[in-house]
């Protein structure tokens, strides 16, 4: 058996910290101002998706896709982002999700490379607020890739920068689009969250507390 785990590539929002909830709060408020309401089930479709694409999906839900000019849409996306930035400005290292710090430490101890693959343009700010930048051997954010998840580009770029083959990587995601991106990159996909929403993943945990080094290694080698 020559299968070998060399790297773990993490999504940020909803995996390392609960910023998925902040994105939800900020989008929900903007949508309500536009007379559009959406629930958590619809929100699953926004996870992992770029800022502009998220806005387009919300407008389409409210049958308002053609109501705004491009400049107006940019202003709406900007408004959501200003709200989101206010929410993340209060974050501290205490906002790391359960088990994440232990997992990062253990991966380092075991000489497994660590990457970040985030669709967010705010990724560096969040990582700074959490004070975990030193754990990452590479950070690939929205500014560095052309194609959004579910396209595999962001995960493939991270693997390339880490100097490892995709088949030796685990990708960790809370989004449907993210799990699809990991699978398209030919990596082992771990989903964090709802079993039904993330059913394409190779291994699913309900919360990050179950994301222990032993559990993910066991799952990887079992395949
Ligand atoms: C992803 C989130 O990580 O980043 C999405 O899951 C978000 O909800 C996307 O829309 C883009 O983030 P930002 O910070 O650039 O608006
Ligand atoms: Mg996410």
From TrEMBL:
Entry note: cofactor: Binds 2 magnesium ions per subunit.
Site (Important for catalytic activity and assists the phosphoryl transfer reaction to Asp8 by balancing charge and orienting the reacting groups): residue numbering on this chain: 118, 149
Major site of localization recorded for this protein: cytoplasm
UniProt entry keywords in alphabetical sequence: Carbohydrate metabolism, Cytoplasm, Isomerase, Magnesium, Metal-binding, Phosphoprotein
Catalysed reaction equations from the record: beta-D-glucose 1-phosphate = beta-D-glucose 6-phosphate
Binding residues annotated for substrate, in chain numbering: 11-13, 27, 46-51, 54, 80, 118-122, 149
Domain of life: Bacteria
Gene3D superfamilies associated with the record: HAD superfamily/HAD-like, Putative phosphatase, domain 2
Catalytic residues identified in the record: 11, 13
Compartments, as annotated in UniProt: Cytoplasm
GO molecular function: beta-phosphoglucomutase activity; magnesium ion binding
GO cellular component: cytoplasm
Catalytic activity, EC: 5.4.2.6
A GO BP annotation: carbohydrate metabolic process
Positions of Mg(2+) binding: 11, 13, 173-174
Pfam family, one: Hydrolase
Entry's transmembrane regions: none
Cofactor requirement: Mg(2+)
InterPro entries the UniProt entry points to: B-phosphoglucomutase_hydrolase, Beta-PGM, HAD-like_sf, HAD-SF_hydro_IA, HAD_sf, PGP-like_dom2
PANTHER family found in the cross-reference section: 2-DEOXYGLUCOSE-6-PHOSPHATE PHOSPHATASE 2, PSEUDOURIDINE-5'-PHOSPHATASE
Family, similarity comment: Belongs to the HAD-like hydrolase superfamily. CbbY/CbbZ/Gph/YieH family.
Name this protein carries in UniProt: Beta-phosphoglucomutase
Annotated source species: Anoxybacillus tengchongensis
């Amino acid at each position: 058996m020559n299968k070998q785990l060399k790297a773990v590539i993490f999504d940020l929002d909803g995996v390392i910290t609960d910023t998925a909830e902040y994105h939800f709060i900020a989008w929900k408020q903007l949508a309500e101002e536009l007379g559009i309401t959406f629930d958590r089930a619809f929100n699953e479709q926004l996870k992992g998706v770029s800022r502009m694409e998220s806005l387009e999906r919300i407008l389409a839900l409210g049958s308002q896709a053609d109501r705004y000019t491009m400049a107006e849409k940019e202003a709406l996306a900007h408004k959501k982002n200003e709200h989101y930035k206010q929410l993340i400005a209060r974050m501290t290292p205490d906002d790391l999700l359960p088990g994440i710090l232990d997992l990062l430490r253990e991966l380092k101890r075991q000489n497994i490379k660590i990457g970040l693959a985030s669709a967010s343009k705010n990724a560096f700010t969040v990582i700074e607020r959490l004070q975990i930048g030193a754990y990452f051997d590479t950070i690939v954010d929205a500014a560095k890739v052309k194609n959004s998840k579910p396209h595999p580009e962001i995960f493939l770029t991270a693997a390339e920068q880490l100097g490892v083959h995709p088949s030796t990587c685990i990708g960790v995601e809370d989004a449907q689009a993210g799990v699809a991106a990991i699978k398209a990159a030919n990596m082992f996909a771990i989903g964090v969250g709802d079993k039904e929403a993330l059913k394409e993943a190779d291994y699913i945990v309900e919360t990050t507390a179950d994301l222990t080094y032993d559990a993910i290694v066991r799952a990887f080698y079992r395949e």
